[in-house]
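Changelog note: in this version the structure field was regenerated for every chain. One regenerated record is shown below for reference.
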Amino acid sequence: MASLRDIRKRIRTTKNTQQITKAMKMVAAAKLRKAQDAILAARPYAEMLDQIIVDLAHRSETMSHPLLKAREVKKVELVVLTSDRGLAGGFNSNVLRRASRFLFENGKNFEQIRVSTIGRKAYDFFRRREVTLGKDYAGFYARVNYRSAADLAHELSARFLSGEVDAVYLVYNEFVSAVTQRVSLTQLLPLQTVSDTNATAAAAPVTVDFKYEPSRQGVLDELVPKALTIKFFRALLESVASEHGARMSAMEDLLRVGREGVEPAGHPVVEARAHSDHQVAIVHRHVRLVHAVHADHAEEMRIARRQGAEPIKVKVQGASTRRTSSVKRVQASGPELISPPPP
């Protein structure tokens, strides 16, 4: 049973933890607003750029780009996006679980699957497992902007064009709302700009055409690398917004559990529990004292039986003891014993 001091100490500790949790929730909410605005602004631009490339590619079957060409896939690079910190609910574990499932399902389909990580949680997870590790982009979230995304997209496209890898996949959390995130596995290279449904619709006869400067191929060569960068930058923004939303939800859950699990100081339930614990402790002390008296009396009885004398009778009253006889010395073969007079 916890004492009154232990109960009050636990309440103080929980209140201090709630203050820290509340502060973390407010910080996550402020960052979420900025990240949400960024991803909502980037989505229409990325979707429209994909549609332009689709229209341009379908207007001329002779045009192509190396980043759009698919080839036999033997070597794959899997880029896993997690956060650098925890305390975000299932944000990291969901991505890592999906990445592990991809490795398990496709381990025998490809010659090699190399795992590159963005975020310390992903690196700490995969470095303890038997996987082929690629590059770890440590501290990348400290400089999330279009320039850094363009540099990383250019690095991935260079490995694809050189034949070092045949396909590049991204695993990240897609932002749906502040309380909902959806894990997404996307093929980054070769660049896929449309789904199967949209591809069928885009294959319809084209009735309107445009003039291109300097040429159709020149426009395509300029837009495809930019579309790759935008697609990767959008995945980064989705992951950042999802992280802040997941952390804000996790902190709210912790605050609710703290409010429900510990009563405030001075609450009648706490006072009654503390009073009950105090009474129980007093009873336990009395029981221990009575047990000690009985143990001492049993020892005296064993000694008296060995010496052939009648032991002292002990009467226990509540928590106190009283010896109820006068004593006299008797001679025995051995040490002197204290024995009560006959009744």
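Spot check on this record: The chain has seven helices and nine strands. Helices lie at 4-59, 91-106, 120-126, 146-161, 196-202, 216-261, 268-307.
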